[in-house]
Specification:
Elements: H1 5-29, H2 33-46, H3 51-77, H4 84-102, H5 105-110, H6 117-139, H7 144-160, H8 167-178, E1 180-186, H9 198-211, E2 219-222, H10 224-229, E3 236-240, E4 251-254, E5 258-259, E6 265-272, E7 275-281
Parallel strand pairs: 1-2, 1-3
Antiparallel strand pairs: 4-6, 5-6, 6-7
Helix pairs in contact: 1-2, 1-3, 2-3, 2-4, 3-4, 4-6, 6-7, 7-8
Length: 282
């Protein structure tokens, strides 16, 4: 049994090597040159003598480089004000390839990878400065819709270069102008069946309104106490009222009238927990 042990180890290793090479080759054939380069590099890190991966890398990297350079030419000819952003993405992808190849000795010898760090730096700064200026221009209009556009510009700036020119303060100011402020009031909840406090419902609704990502981010909700504390002048006030509610697995099974006797009529049944209750009138 021992003499087969090395063979059992080699089988999955060979399978992984062959599968990886095949994947890099497939990427090359379908024109996904970046993916082909990265897969070939990973394989050569594990096995520097893997000749098939070297050949794939020699084909894939020049093709990837040419593809990105052509994209950059088209972008630079564009009249789009924000063209520096797709330009930045292209340079980021090129530098991702350069970094991967430079960290693999056999890969660096196989292809002459180009470094575009200076170009990436320039594109990033151009993109940030354009967005920042557009944000300031929109914010200066003073209206809510323009403030929303300003916020989105400043938000993009902060993603590209965090805290660029104290952009977070600009975001806060834009958001304050852009947001629609709503105070949500609730009346007391009463139930003859359940003893739950009004605070329970208030807390649950507050939690939903402030954490639900599907709601418009420019609509801000406040409860009356919060609004009073900051002396808020709301844009709108909503008053909620509960006529009744159900808890847990309560289920209405029937809603029929059944004559039980001359003196009583069964009007329905409900499940309260595990108990079935019948409702009658006499």
């Amino acid at each position: 049994m021992k003499k087969f042990f090395p063979v059992l180890i080699l089988i999955p290793l060979l399978f992984c090597l062959l599968y990886g090479c095949k994947s890099a080759k497939k990427s090359l054939k379908r024109g996904d040159f970046d993916d082909s380069v990265l897969r070939a590099v990973e394989k050569l890190k594990d096995n520097p003598d893997h000749t098939s991966s070297i050949e794939i890398l020699k084909q894939a990297y020049p093709a990837a480089l040419e593809q990105h350079l052509q994209e950059l030419k088209q972008i630079q000819l564009s009249a789009d004000l924000f063209k520096s952003e797709p330009e930045l993405i292209s340079y980021e992808n090129l530098n991702k390839l350069y970094k991967a190849i430079s960290q693999c000795n056999v890969c660096a010898k196989a292809v002459d990878a180009r470094n575009f760090e200076n170009e990436e730096y320039t594109a990033r700064n151009n993109a940030v400065n354009i967005r920042y200026k557009e944000g300031e221009r929109s914010l200066s209009n003073g209206d809510r819709e323009s403030a929303r556009k300003a916020y989105e510009h400043f938000e993009k700036v902060n993603l590209l270069i965090p805290d660029f020119k104290e952009v977070r303060k600009k975001m806060d100011l834009a958001y304050e102008i852009a947001s629609f402020k709503v105070v949500v009031e609730q009346v007391l909840v009463t139930s003859k069946t359940y003893k739950l406090s009004n605070e329970y419902f208030q807390d649950k609704i507050d939690e939903f309104l402030k954490t639900n990502k599907r709601l418009n981010k420019f609509v801000r909700f406040y409860n009356p106490n919060e609004a009073a504390e900051i002396k808020l002048q709301p844009d709108h006030v909503v008053t909620l009222q509960f006529d009744d509610f159900v808890v847990g697995q309560t289920l209405i099974e029937k809603n029929t009238e059944t004559v039980v006797s001359k003196d009583s009529v069964k009007i329905g049944e409900k499940m309260i927990g595990r108990k079935k209750l019948s409702f009658m009138i006499k």
